[in-house]
Amino acid sequence: MQFRHPSDKDDVLRTKKDAFKIPEGVIYLDGNSLGVLPKNVPARLAEVVEQEWGMSLIKSWNEHSWFDLPLRVGNRIGRLIGAPEGSVVACDSTSVNVFKVLAAALSLRADRKVILSDNGNFPTDLYVASGLAELLDKGHELRVVAPEEVEAAITEDVAVVMLTQVDYRTGRLHDMAALTEKAHQAGALAIWDLAHSAGAIPVDLKGAKADFAIGCGYKYLNGGPGAPAFLYVAEVHQDNVTSPVTGWMGHEAPFAFDLDYRAVHGVNRMTVGTPAILSLSSLYAALDVFEDVDMADIRKKSISLSELFIKKVEEKCPQLTLASPRDPETRGSQVSFRFEEGYAAMQALIARGVIGDFRAPDVMRFGFTPLYLSHQDVVDAVAILADILETGSWDRPEYKSRAKVT
Protein backbone atom coordinates (compact mmCIF):
# COMPACT_ATOMS: atom_id res chain seq x y z
CA MET A 1 0.00 0.00 0.00
CA GLN A 2 1.28 3.45 -0.92
CA PHE A 3 1.12 6.35 1.53
CA ARG A 4 1.28 9.79 0.02
CA HIS A 5 0.82 11.66 3.27
CA PRO A 6 3.42 10.56 5.83
CA SER A 7 0.93 10.43 8.72
CA ASP A 8 -1.05 7.69 6.99
CA LYS A 9 1.86 5.25 7.18
CA ASP A 10 1.62 4.96 10.98
CA ASP A 11 -2.17 5.10 11.18
CA VAL A 12 -3.35 2.15 13.31
CA LEU A 13 -6.88 2.56 11.93
CA ARG A 14 -5.98 2.67 8.24
CA THR A 15 -7.31 -0.82 7.44
CA LYS A 16 -10.74 0.06 8.82
CA LYS A 17 -11.60 1.90 5.61
CA ASP A 18 -11.92 -1.49 3.93
CA ALA A 19 -14.94 -2.21 6.13
CA PHE A 20 -16.97 0.57 4.48
CA LYS A 21 -18.61 1.03 1.10
CA ILE A 22 -17.42 4.42 -0.14
CA PRO A 23 -18.22 5.47 -3.72
CA GLU A 24 -15.23 5.75 -6.01
CA GLY A 25 -13.90 9.30 -6.20
CA VAL A 26 -15.72 10.52 -3.10
CA ILE A 27 -14.11 12.10 -0.05
CA TYR A 28 -16.80 11.88 2.60
CA LEU A 29 -16.69 14.59 5.26
CA ASP A 30 -20.28 14.25 6.43
CA GLY A 31 -20.19 11.27 8.77
CA ASN A 32 -21.34 13.65 11.49
CA SER A 33 -24.66 13.84 9.65
CA LEU A 34 -25.02 10.39 8.07
CA GLY A 35 -22.43 7.66 8.45
CA VAL A 36 -21.10 5.56 5.58
CA LEU A 37 -22.57 2.11 4.90
CA PRO A 38 -20.50 -0.67 6.51
CA LYS A 39 -20.00 -3.49 4.01
CA ASN A 40 -21.32 -6.17 6.35
CA VAL A 41 -24.72 -4.54 6.82
CA PRO A 42 -26.45 -5.49 3.52
CA ALA A 43 -25.71 -9.20 3.99
CA ARG A 44 -26.86 -9.12 7.61
CA LEU A 45 -30.02 -7.23 6.71
CA ALA A 46 -30.73 -9.67 3.89
CA GLU A 47 -30.33 -12.54 6.37
CA VAL A 48 -32.79 -10.95 8.77
CA VAL A 49 -35.29 -10.32 5.98
CA GLU A 50 -34.98 -13.58 4.09
CA GLN A 51 -34.17 -16.09 6.81
CA GLU A 52 -35.48 -14.69 10.07
CA TRP A 53 -38.54 -12.79 8.89
CA GLY A 54 -38.98 -14.84 5.72
CA MET A 55 -38.56 -18.35 7.14
CA SER A 56 -38.87 -18.17 10.92
CA LEU A 57 -41.62 -15.56 10.82
CA ILE A 58 -43.01 -14.71 14.26
CA LYS A 59 -40.89 -17.44 15.86
CA SER A 60 -37.95 -15.08 15.41
CA TRP A 61 -38.95 -13.11 18.48
CA ASN A 62 -37.72 -16.08 20.48
CA GLU A 63 -35.51 -18.07 18.10
CA HIS A 64 -33.46 -15.06 17.00
CA SER A 65 -33.79 -12.98 20.19
CA TRP A 66 -35.61 -10.14 18.49
CA PHE A 67 -37.26 -9.26 21.77
CA ASP A 68 -33.92 -8.51 23.45
CA LEU A 69 -32.41 -6.61 20.52
CA PRO A 70 -32.92 -3.08 21.95
CA LEU A 71 -30.87 -3.98 25.02
CA ARG A 72 -28.26 -5.96 23.06
CA VAL A 73 -27.70 -2.99 20.74
CA GLY A 74 -27.67 -0.71 23.77
CA ASN A 75 -24.94 -2.73 25.43
CA ARG A 76 -22.75 -2.45 22.32
CA ILE A 77 -23.23 1.31 22.26
CA GLY A 78 -22.67 1.48 26.01
CA ARG A 79 -19.11 0.22 25.58
CA LEU A 80 -18.36 3.27 23.42
CA ILE A 81 -19.81 5.83 25.81
CA GLY A 82 -18.60 4.58 29.19
CA ALA A 83 -21.92 3.13 30.24
CA PRO A 84 -22.25 -0.10 32.28
CA GLU A 85 -24.02 -3.08 30.77
CA GLY A 86 -27.76 -2.80 31.22
CA SER A 87 -27.86 0.99 31.30
CA VAL A 88 -28.37 1.79 27.60
CA VAL A 89 -31.26 0.77 25.37
CA ALA A 90 -31.68 1.44 21.64
CA CYS A 91 -35.15 2.60 20.73
CA ASP A 92 -37.27 5.32 19.16
CA SER A 93 -35.79 8.57 17.80
CA THR A 94 -33.51 11.03 19.52
CA SER A 95 -36.34 13.55 19.90
CA VAL A 96 -38.67 10.99 21.47
CA ASN A 97 -35.91 9.93 23.84
CA VAL A 98 -35.26 13.55 24.82
CA PHE A 99 -38.93 13.81 25.75
CA LYS A 100 -38.80 10.62 27.80
CA VAL A 101 -35.63 11.30 29.77
CA LEU A 102 -36.43 14.97 30.35
CA ALA A 103 -39.87 14.09 31.71
CA ALA A 104 -38.28 11.41 33.88
CA ALA A 105 -35.64 13.82 35.19
CA LEU A 106 -38.21 16.52 35.98
CA SER A 107 -40.24 13.99 37.96
CA LEU A 108 -37.20 13.49 40.20
CA ARG A 109 -36.94 17.25 40.85
CA ALA A 110 -40.63 18.08 41.16
CA ASP A 111 -39.98 21.07 43.42
CA ARG A 112 -37.91 22.86 40.74
CA LYS A 113 -39.12 24.39 37.49
CA VAL A 114 -36.09 25.45 35.42
CA ILE A 115 -34.68 23.47 32.49
CA LEU A 116 -31.28 24.96 31.66
CA SER A 117 -29.79 24.65 28.17
CA ASP A 118 -27.67 26.68 25.78
CA ASN A 119 -28.17 28.24 22.37
CA GLY A 120 -25.67 25.83 20.84
CA ASN A 121 -27.95 22.93 21.66
CA PHE A 122 -29.57 21.18 18.73
CA PRO A 123 -32.88 23.03 18.17
CA THR A 124 -35.07 19.92 18.38
CA ASP A 125 -33.95 19.40 21.99
CA LEU A 126 -35.13 22.90 22.79
CA TYR A 127 -38.38 22.36 20.90
CA VAL A 128 -39.05 19.18 22.89
CA ALA A 129 -38.26 20.92 26.19
CA SER A 130 -40.59 23.81 25.37
CA GLY A 131 -43.34 21.45 24.31
CA LEU A 132 -42.98 19.32 27.42
CA ALA A 133 -43.08 22.38 29.68
CA GLU A 134 -46.28 23.50 27.99
CA LEU A 135 -47.77 20.01 28.22
CA LEU A 136 -46.97 19.64 31.93
CA ASP A 137 -48.49 23.08 32.59
CA LYS A 138 -46.81 23.31 36.01
CA GLY A 139 -44.83 26.51 35.52
CA HIS A 140 -41.67 25.01 34.04
CA GLU A 141 -39.28 27.40 32.30
CA LEU A 142 -36.75 26.66 29.58
CA ARG A 143 -33.79 28.92 30.29
CA VAL A 144 -31.34 29.24 27.37
CA VAL A 145 -27.93 30.88 27.77
CA ALA A 146 -24.75 31.09 25.71
CA PRO A 147 -22.55 27.96 25.94
CA GLU A 148 -19.83 29.76 27.88
CA GLU A 149 -22.44 30.98 30.41
CA VAL A 150 -23.82 27.57 31.34
CA GLU A 151 -21.68 26.97 34.41
CA ALA A 152 -22.59 30.29 36.00
CA ALA A 153 -26.26 29.75 35.17
CA ILE A 154 -26.51 26.51 37.17
CA THR A 155 -28.33 27.93 40.18
CA GLU A 156 -30.38 26.30 42.90
CA ASP A 157 -33.68 26.78 41.04
CA VAL A 158 -32.50 24.58 38.15
CA ALA A 159 -34.09 21.14 37.96
CA VAL A 160 -32.26 19.80 34.92
CA VAL A 161 -29.22 20.85 32.92
CA MET A 162 -29.80 19.59 29.37
CA LEU A 163 -26.87 19.99 26.96
CA THR A 164 -25.50 18.61 23.73
CA GLN A 165 -21.91 17.63 24.44
CA VAL A 166 -20.63 18.60 20.97
CA ASP A 167 -22.22 21.66 19.36
CA TYR A 168 -23.75 20.54 16.06
CA ARG A 169 -22.80 23.76 14.29
CA THR A 170 -19.29 24.58 15.51
CA GLY A 171 -18.09 21.39 17.18
CA ARG A 172 -17.56 23.18 20.51
CA LEU A 173 -17.07 20.54 23.23
CA HIS A 174 -18.59 20.90 26.69
CA ASP A 175 -16.75 19.53 29.73
CA MET A 176 -19.23 16.82 30.71
CA ALA A 177 -17.63 15.88 34.03
CA ALA A 178 -17.23 19.47 35.26
CA LEU A 179 -20.72 20.62 34.31
CA THR A 180 -22.35 17.47 35.68
CA GLU A 181 -20.53 17.98 38.96
CA LYS A 182 -21.67 21.62 39.08
CA ALA A 183 -25.27 20.52 38.38
CA HIS A 184 -25.15 17.99 41.20
CA GLN A 185 -23.66 20.53 43.60
CA ALA A 186 -26.66 22.74 42.88
CA GLY A 187 -29.07 19.84 43.37
CA ALA A 188 -29.88 19.54 39.65
CA LEU A 189 -29.70 16.56 37.28
CA ALA A 190 -27.71 16.38 34.03
CA ILE A 191 -28.92 15.15 30.64
CA TRP A 192 -26.38 14.85 27.82
CA ASP A 193 -27.14 14.63 24.10
CA LEU A 194 -24.40 12.50 22.51
CA ALA A 195 -25.56 12.77 18.89
CA HIS A 196 -22.18 14.19 17.82
CA SER A 197 -20.15 12.33 20.44
CA ALA A 198 -20.98 8.61 20.34
CA GLY A 199 -18.46 6.80 18.16
CA ALA A 200 -16.47 9.99 17.55
CA ILE A 201 -14.85 10.89 20.88
CA PRO A 202 -14.24 9.02 24.14
CA VAL A 203 -17.22 9.42 26.48
CA ASP A 204 -17.39 8.27 30.10
CA LEU A 205 -20.97 8.59 31.30
CA LYS A 206 -20.42 6.60 34.48
CA GLY A 207 -17.18 8.37 35.32
CA ALA A 208 -18.80 11.77 34.77
CA LYS A 209 -21.79 10.66 36.88
CA ALA A 210 -24.23 11.73 34.17
CA ASP A 211 -27.85 11.08 35.09
CA PHE A 212 -29.30 10.57 31.61
CA ALA A 213 -28.08 10.64 28.03
CA ILE A 214 -29.51 10.24 24.56
CA GLY A 215 -28.03 9.95 21.10
CA CYS A 216 -28.63 8.77 17.57
CA GLY A 217 -27.49 5.72 15.64
CA TYR A 218 -27.06 7.15 12.15
CA LYS A 219 -24.11 9.52 12.49
CA TYR A 220 -20.74 8.22 13.70
CA LEU A 221 -22.29 4.83 14.59
CA ASN A 222 -23.14 4.27 10.89
CA GLY A 223 -26.50 2.60 11.55
CA GLY A 224 -28.15 4.01 8.43
CA PRO A 225 -30.71 6.76 7.74
CA GLY A 226 -33.32 6.86 10.48
CA ALA A 227 -31.44 4.30 12.58
CA PRO A 228 -32.81 3.88 16.09
CA ALA A 229 -31.59 6.27 18.74
CA PHE A 230 -30.47 5.27 22.21
CA LEU A 231 -30.90 6.43 25.76
CA TYR A 232 -28.95 5.99 28.98
CA VAL A 233 -30.25 5.99 32.53
CA ALA A 234 -27.76 5.89 35.40
CA GLU A 235 -28.21 2.82 37.56
CA VAL A 236 -29.15 4.92 40.57
CA HIS A 237 -32.22 6.25 38.74
CA GLN A 238 -33.39 3.22 36.81
CA ASP A 239 -36.02 1.99 39.24
CA ASN A 240 -37.08 5.47 40.35
CA VAL A 241 -38.35 6.77 37.02
CA THR A 242 -40.99 5.71 34.55
CA SER A 243 -41.29 6.63 30.91
CA PRO A 244 -43.96 9.28 30.35
CA VAL A 245 -45.11 7.09 27.47
CA THR A 246 -46.00 3.83 29.18
CA GLY A 247 -46.14 1.26 26.42
CA TRP A 248 -46.25 -2.49 26.67
CA MET A 249 -42.55 -3.06 26.04
CA GLY A 250 -41.81 -1.22 29.28
CA HIS A 251 -44.22 -3.43 31.23
CA GLU A 252 -42.76 -6.03 33.57
CA ALA A 253 -44.92 -8.74 31.97
CA PRO A 254 -45.99 -7.57 28.51
CA PHE A 255 -47.43 -10.94 27.53
CA ALA A 256 -49.58 -11.19 30.64
CA PHE A 257 -51.71 -8.53 28.95
CA ASP A 258 -52.70 -7.01 32.27
CA LEU A 259 -54.81 -3.87 32.14
CA ASP A 260 -52.68 -2.08 34.75
CA TYR A 261 -49.16 -0.81 34.03
CA ARG A 262 -46.23 -2.04 36.10
CA ALA A 263 -42.81 -0.89 34.90
CA VAL A 264 -40.14 -3.51 34.39
CA HIS A 265 -36.97 -3.17 36.47
CA GLY A 266 -33.99 -1.51 34.79
CA VAL A 267 -33.48 0.63 31.72
CA ASN A 268 -35.98 -1.38 29.66
CA ARG A 269 -38.75 0.51 31.43
CA MET A 270 -37.89 3.40 29.08
CA THR A 271 -38.94 1.38 26.03
CA VAL A 272 -42.43 1.81 24.66
CA GLY A 273 -43.61 0.01 21.53
CA THR A 274 -42.57 -2.88 19.34
CA PRO A 275 -38.89 -2.49 18.40
CA ALA A 276 -37.94 -1.77 14.78
CA ILE A 277 -36.16 -5.05 14.11
CA LEU A 278 -34.81 -4.31 10.63
CA SER A 279 -33.28 -0.98 11.69
CA LEU A 280 -31.96 -2.40 14.94
CA SER A 281 -30.38 -5.30 13.06
CA SER A 282 -28.62 -2.88 10.72
CA LEU A 283 -27.32 -0.85 13.64
CA TYR A 284 -26.18 -3.94 15.52
CA ALA A 285 -24.21 -5.14 12.48
CA ALA A 286 -22.75 -1.67 11.86
CA LEU A 287 -21.31 -1.66 15.37
CA ASP A 288 -19.12 -4.67 14.51
CA VAL A 289 -16.48 -2.28 13.20
CA PHE A 290 -15.92 -0.88 16.70
CA GLU A 291 -15.30 -4.23 18.38
CA ASP A 292 -11.50 -4.09 18.15
CA VAL A 293 -11.18 -0.31 18.22
CA ASP A 294 -9.90 1.81 21.09
CA MET A 295 -11.77 5.13 21.30
CA ALA A 296 -8.49 6.77 22.32
CA ASP A 297 -7.07 5.86 18.90
CA ILE A 298 -10.13 7.32 17.21
CA ARG A 299 -9.73 10.54 19.15
CA LYS A 300 -6.01 10.79 18.42
CA LYS A 301 -6.57 10.41 14.69
CA SER A 302 -9.59 12.71 14.72
CA ILE A 303 -7.49 15.50 16.18
CA SER A 304 -4.70 14.84 13.70
CA LEU A 305 -7.10 14.97 10.75
CA SER A 306 -8.89 18.10 11.91
CA GLU A 307 -5.69 19.95 12.79
CA LEU A 308 -4.31 19.20 9.33
CA PHE A 309 -7.56 20.38 7.76
CA ILE A 310 -7.53 23.69 9.62
CA LYS A 311 -3.87 24.27 8.78
CA LYS A 312 -4.37 23.60 5.06
CA VAL A 313 -7.61 25.59 4.78
CA GLU A 314 -6.09 28.62 6.44
CA GLU A 315 -3.06 28.35 4.15
CA LYS A 316 -5.00 27.94 0.90
CA CYS A 317 -8.50 29.39 1.52
CA PRO A 318 -8.17 32.86 3.10
CA GLN A 319 -11.79 33.59 2.18
CA LEU A 320 -12.94 31.28 4.98
CA THR A 321 -13.05 32.05 8.71
CA LEU A 322 -12.72 29.35 11.34
CA ALA A 323 -15.98 28.96 13.30
CA SER A 324 -14.85 26.04 15.47
CA PRO A 325 -12.70 26.25 18.61
CA ARG A 326 -9.03 26.36 17.70
CA ASP A 327 -7.98 24.21 20.64
CA PRO A 328 -8.61 20.57 19.57
CA GLU A 329 -9.23 19.57 23.18
CA THR A 330 -12.34 21.74 23.20
CA ARG A 331 -13.59 20.54 19.82
CA GLY A 332 -15.43 17.39 18.76
CA SER A 333 -14.72 15.50 15.54
CA GLN A 334 -15.81 18.23 13.16
CA VAL A 335 -14.56 21.57 11.87
CA SER A 336 -16.68 24.45 10.63
CA PHE A 337 -15.71 27.48 8.60
CA ARG A 338 -17.78 30.56 7.87
CA PHE A 339 -18.20 31.90 4.34
CA GLU A 340 -20.91 34.30 3.21
CA GLU A 341 -21.64 32.12 0.17
CA GLY A 342 -21.12 28.90 2.12
CA TYR A 343 -24.16 27.14 0.76
CA ALA A 344 -23.14 27.62 -2.88
CA ALA A 345 -19.51 26.76 -2.15
CA MET A 346 -20.59 23.54 -0.44
CA GLN A 347 -22.76 22.53 -3.39
CA ALA A 348 -19.82 23.14 -5.75
CA LEU A 349 -17.62 21.06 -3.46
CA ILE A 350 -20.13 18.20 -3.40
CA ALA A 351 -20.30 18.31 -7.19
CA ARG A 352 -16.54 17.72 -7.19
CA GLY A 353 -16.88 14.66 -4.93
CA VAL A 354 -16.05 16.22 -1.55
CA ILE A 355 -19.14 15.88 0.61
CA GLY A 356 -19.71 18.07 3.64
CA ASP A 357 -22.80 20.04 4.59
CA PHE A 358 -24.08 23.54 5.36
CA ARG A 359 -25.71 25.04 8.43
CA ALA A 360 -27.42 28.41 8.25
CA PRO A 361 -26.60 31.16 8.06
CA ASP A 362 -23.05 30.77 6.72
CA VAL A 363 -21.39 27.65 8.14
CA MET A 364 -19.62 25.07 5.98
CA ARG A 365 -19.38 21.98 8.17
CA PHE A 366 -16.89 19.12 7.79
CA GLY A 367 -16.98 15.91 9.81
CA PHE A 368 -13.94 13.71 10.41
CA THR A 369 -14.59 10.01 10.83
CA PRO A 370 -11.21 8.37 11.54
CA LEU A 371 -12.42 4.89 10.62
CA TYR A 372 -12.58 5.70 6.92
CA LEU A 373 -10.74 8.99 6.37
CA SER A 374 -7.03 9.43 5.70
CA HIS A 375 -4.73 12.41 5.96
CA GLN A 376 -4.37 12.30 2.19
CA ASP A 377 -8.15 12.63 1.89
CA VAL A 378 -7.86 15.86 3.88
CA VAL A 379 -5.09 17.22 1.66
CA ASP A 380 -7.01 16.35 -1.50
CA ALA A 381 -10.27 17.83 -0.17
CA VAL A 382 -8.64 21.15 0.67
CA ALA A 383 -7.01 21.32 -2.77
CA ILE A 384 -10.43 20.99 -4.41
CA LEU A 385 -11.97 23.52 -2.03
CA ALA A 386 -9.16 26.01 -2.76
CA ASP A 387 -9.67 25.61 -6.50
CA ILE A 388 -13.42 26.23 -6.16
CA LEU A 389 -12.83 29.41 -4.17
CA GLU A 390 -9.97 30.67 -6.35
CA THR A 391 -11.84 30.18 -9.62
CA GLY A 392 -15.20 31.28 -8.24
CA SER A 393 -16.78 28.16 -9.70
CA TRP A 394 -19.30 28.18 -6.84
CA ASP A 395 -20.90 31.31 -8.33
CA ARG A 396 -23.48 29.50 -10.47
CA PRO A 397 -27.29 29.54 -10.21
CA GLU A 398 -27.59 25.79 -9.71
CA TYR A 399 -25.36 25.96 -6.64
CA LYS A 400 -27.39 28.78 -5.06
CA SER A 401 -30.78 27.10 -5.33
CA ARG A 402 -31.56 25.83 -1.83
CA ALA A 403 -32.61 22.19 -1.52
CA LYS A 404 -34.88 20.97 1.27
CA VAL A 405 -31.91 19.37 3.06
CA THR A 406 -28.72 21.41 3.38
From TrEMBL:
<dbReference type="InterPro" id="IPR015424">
    <property type="entry name" value="PyrdxlP-dep_Trfase"/>
</dbReference>
<dbReference type="GO" id="GO:0019441">
    <property type="term" value="P:L-tryptophan catabolic process to kynurenine"/>
</dbReference>
<feature type="binding site">
    <location>
        <position position="274"/>
    </location>
    <ligand>
        <name>pyridoxal 5'-phosphate</name>
    </ligand>
</feature>
<dbReference type="GO" id="GO:0043420">
    <property type="term" value="P:anthranilate metabolic process"/>
</dbReference>
<comment type="pathway">
    <text>Cofactor biosynthesis; NAD(+) biosynthesis; quinolinate from L-kynurenine: step 2/3.</text>
</comment>
<comment type="similarity">
    <text>Belongs to the kynureninase family.</text>
</comment>
<feature type="binding site">
    <location>
        <position position="193"/>
    </location>
    <ligand>
        <name>pyridoxal 5'-phosphate</name>
    </ligand>
</feature>
<feature type="binding site">
    <location>
        <position position="218"/>
    </location>
    <ligand>
        <name>pyridoxal 5'-phosphate</name>
    </ligand>
</feature>
<keyword id="KW-0662">Pyridine nucleotide biosynthesis</keyword>
<dbReference type="GO" id="GO:0019805">
    <property type="term" value="P:quinolinate biosynthetic process"/>
</dbReference>
<feature type="binding site">
    <location>
        <position position="248"/>
    </location>
    <ligand>
        <name>pyridoxal 5'-phosphate</name>
    </ligand>
</feature>
<dbReference type="GO" id="GO:0030429">
    <property type="term" value="F:kynureninase activity"/>
</dbReference>
<dbReference type="InterPro" id="IPR015422">
    <property type="entry name" value="PyrdxlP-dep_Trfase_small"/>
</dbReference>
<comment type="similarity">
    <text>Belongs to the DegT/DnrJ/EryC1 family.</text>
</comment>
<comment type="pathway">
    <text>Amino-acid degradation; L-kynurenine degradation; L-alanine and anthranilate from L-kynurenine: step 1/1.</text>
</comment>
<dbReference type="InterPro" id="IPR015421">
    <property type="entry name" value="PyrdxlP-dep_Trfase_major"/>
</dbReference>
<dbReference type="Pfam" id="PF22580">
    <property type="entry name" value="KYNU_C"/>
</dbReference>
<dbReference type="GO" id="GO:0005737">
    <property type="term" value="C:cytoplasm"/>
</dbReference>
<comment type="subunit">
    <text>Homodimer.</text>
</comment>
<keyword id="KW-0378">Hydrolase</keyword>
<dbReference type="InterPro" id="IPR000653">
    <property type="entry name" value="DegT/StrS_aminotransferase"/>
</dbReference>
<feature type="binding site">
    <location>
        <begin position="122"/>
        <end position="125"/>
    </location>
    <ligand>
        <name>pyridoxal 5'-phosphate</name>
    </ligand>
</feature>
<protein>
    <recommendedName>
        <fullName>Kynureninase</fullName>
        <ecNumber>3.7.1.3</ecNumber>
    </recommendedName>
</protein>
<dbReference type="InterPro" id="IPR010111">
    <property type="entry name" value="Kynureninase"/>
</dbReference>
<feature type="binding site">
    <location>
        <position position="164"/>
    </location>
    <ligand>
        <name>pyridoxal 5'-phosphate</name>
    </ligand>
</feature>
<keyword id="KW-0663">Pyridoxal phosphate</keyword>
<feature type="binding site">
    <location>
        <position position="196"/>
    </location>
    <ligand>
        <name>pyridoxal 5'-phosphate</name>
    </ligand>
</feature>
<comment type="function">
    <text>Catalyzes the cleavage of L-kynurenine (L-Kyn) and L-3-hydroxykynurenine (L-3OHKyn) into anthranilic acid (AA) and 3-hydroxyanthranilic acid (3-OHAA), respectively.</text>
</comment>
<dbReference type="Pfam" id="PF01041">
    <property type="entry name" value="DegT_DnrJ_EryC1"/>
</dbReference>
<feature type="binding site">
    <location>
        <position position="94"/>
    </location>
    <ligand>
        <name>pyridoxal 5'-phosphate</name>
    </ligand>
</feature>
<dbReference type="GO" id="GO:0009435">
    <property type="term" value="P:NAD+ biosynthetic process"/>
</dbReference>
<feature type="binding site">
    <location>
        <position position="95"/>
    </location>
    <ligand>
        <name>pyridoxal 5'-phosphate</name>
    </ligand>
</feature>
<feature type="modified residue" description="N6-(pyridoxal phosphate)lysine">
    <location>
        <position position="219"/>
    </location>
</feature>
<dbReference type="GO" id="GO:0030170">
    <property type="term" value="F:pyridoxal phosphate binding"/>
</dbReference>
<dbReference type="GO" id="GO:0097053">
    <property type="term" value="P:L-kynurenine catabolic process"/>
</dbReference>
